[in-house]
Amino acid sequence: MKIQISPETELVMDPLTSVISKQKTLTEKRSMIALIQKLDETERAVDSLINALAPDKPLANSWRGREKTSVGAGMVTNIFYGIVAGLLVIGVFLIIIFLTGGF
Questions:
Q1: Strand 11-14 to strand 3-6: parallel, antiparallel, or no bridges (unpaired)?
Q2: Which chain regions cross the lipid bilayer (predicted)?
């Protein structure tokens, strides 16, 4: 709330800060269309980032019907790394057995 000091000169005072300033007129209107378009673009980018984190959601620039491809790709990758890790463990185990004279 501002206290009007002089209506002729449009001076007002803020009672909390004791600052005297010229009264602002609210006749200046700006178009919000550009701002709304920018917000829509930002929302699409945020939705795309959030969908990229979920394996069952579609990605922004992907074809239809590819919602679960991340699950399949993750399964194949995990199987591959599991086989590689298993072969390494077996190889180290066989080297230890061979060096200790178990065979």
A1: antiparallel
A2: 79-99
* Helices marked H in the chain: 33-53, 69-100
Give backbone dihedrals phi and psi of 7, rounded to 5 degrees, phi first: -65, -30
Contacts made by residues 28-37, CB under 8 angstroms, sequence distance 24+: none
Rounded-to-10 torsion of CA 34, 36, 38, 42: 180
Q: By the 8 A CB rule, do 12 and 5 touch?
A: yes
Q: Where are the domains of the chain?
A: 1-30, 33-100
pLDDT digits (tens, 9 = 90+) for 56-97: 777 767 777 777 777 888 899 999 999 999 999 999 999 999
Q: What global pTM score does this model have? A: 0.45
